[in-house]
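#struct-help
A.M.: can someone run this one for me? Single chain, 81 residues.
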Amino acid sequence: EGLMQSVIYSNKSQECERIVMLLSNVKEDFHEYVLGQDFTDKQFRAEFGEQAEYPQISIGLDHRGGMKDTLRYMSDKGMFL
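D.P.: on it. Structure tokens below:
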């Protein structure tokens, strides 16, 4: 652990900014990919499905989904301690 980088697929919305701040605060190593800069909405939909919301987050190799699922995962893993 620690070698794997988390990834945020962001459209720079408020929720995306919140998860970026949160991962920074817990010292999680992450890379933010930005809509229109690093990928298109079409690529996003192809990867995560038509109903997917921003942000989509992967922690290490595991796709965690949206903000709520990611927060639950981080909480379960004790990442907020």
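A.M.: thanks! The chain has a mean pLDDT of 91.
D.P.: also worth noting: The chain is about 35% helix and 20% strand.
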